[in-house]
Amino acid sequence: MNQTEKPTALIMIFGATGDLANRKLFPSLYQLYQKGNLDRFAVIGVARRSLTDEQFKQNVKDSVLSAENSSENIDEFISHFSYHSHDVTDSSSYTALNQLAEELDNRFKLNGNRIFYLAMAPEFFGTIAEHLKKDGLTNVKGFKRLVIEKPFGHDLESAKKLNKQIRTAFSENEIYRIDHYLGKEMVQNIEVIRFANAMFEPLWNNRYISNIQITSSEVLGVEERGRYYEKSGALRDMVQNHMLQMVALLAMEPPIRLTTDEIRSEKVRVLRSLRQVTGEDVGKYFVRGQYGEGVVNGEQLPAYRNEDMVDPESTTETFVAGKLMIDNFRWAGVPFYIRTGKRMLTKQTKIVIQFKDIPMNLYYQTEQTLAPNLLVIHIQPEEGITLHLNAKKFGQSLDATPVKMSFANKGINGMNTPEAYELLLFDCMRGDATNFTHWDEVALSWSFVDNISNAWRNMKETSFPNYESGKMGPQAAHELLEKDGFHWWPVTTLDVETCN
Length: 500
Ligand code: NAD
Fold this sequence. Notes:
It is a single chain. The chain is an alpha/beta fold. It is built from 14 helices and 18 strands. Helix 1 crosses helix 2 and helix 5 packs parallel to helix 6. The protein starts with 8 loop residues before the first strand and ends in an 18-residue tail after the last helix. The site of nicotinamide-adenine-dinucleotide (NAD) has 19 residues, from helix 1.
């Protein structure tokens, strides 16, 4: 399907009364509808709770109204929604669901195209996929696609098992594994910044870049997700997927074409080039942390171990910092530092590319050496780019001073960029899997991350908690860079300013 064609499909959302469906999926579908990006479509909400169609439509309406400023065409929009109360393990429930799907397919002329969106706990993914096939729901004359949320397994073994189950009903090119970071405007922009600018691509290698830093920090703690987080931790929750995906996009070779297969195969090559860190070496490359109590904005906050549904002696990490080495020709010797965590100073996702110093420095700024050139890509909450340069200080002297050139998406485009889920839903409906994760990427990411979690499991000493709430992680995360002669660029001082 080309960029201008509008998709037609029946979308079944499993977990339609849940948080994800209500906060993200319904408002995103409404946006697509309002922009005229949907042609013919219908949605079946599937969940355990017993609801009438009318109650469900009202839920959808409420979730759209609480997320959007507009209510234009809302009644027409919700007329495309139906509800099916469902037990995921019961075959008769799938038979009834199939009857409803066929009826809607005829009523809305959906050409037998079906998208199954699994917005529920991952332990159900395999069972649902198997039932969809066994009970005839995947037997359609149009396309069939499966959209699944993270986490995709909790290690390589469980991911393989899950993959085997879903592959009984869907082929790899029918599976859309969501990594919502890949739907973010500025993550998608990484490739454009790199491959559409003559001033960056020639410098994008170990001759000119000294290190790359990726920070994804949250201010919130674990909130009500303690039960899930205890089994996951920051390494599985953030590094295996979002952080490694950003590393792959930053480090990949230019694809020969901008097609799904070419882009994915370049990302896979990056993941294959990651230096595997095992056993005691893990301590040299990775730091883990867990938040203690602290005062943030005058509010006394509890330590992770005192949160709901958390073991008072938990050794789950709420923070990870790591040094990743990509052992290939382009990147040999350039560290990619990553850090992510909860209850940190600020909510930011940012990438800082630090360029090497020029060979000879003619200028001094008040007895300091020149500031390095930085390219900062602001992923969220601000979206934009800042380039840190040196320029002449105003006045008589020949001193240099750092200056920033910034571009802010919001300022330039005059509007908020679309929610990641809106872009990803649209991509899936159009059959574009570029911004979804291929199984090969999932498998390589898990094998890299499993080495780290295995080593951590064998190291008894954790001395948690080791960072105060409201701080940028433990001291060891700073030392990780200091021993290489670098430091984390402070995320709070790199604000986007709009250039006019
Ligand atoms: P949730 O607990 O809010 O909702 C779960 C949904 O599953 C509900 O609609 C519930 O009725 C349904 N359900 C549970 N058991 C069922 C059963 N036996 N039969 C039929 N339906 C059943 O969960 P959520 O926060 O919406 O998350 C859903 C998935 O999305 C999870 O895999 C989660 O990891 C992932 N995810 C969520 C978010 C988010 O922002 N909420 C973000 C990223 C990924």
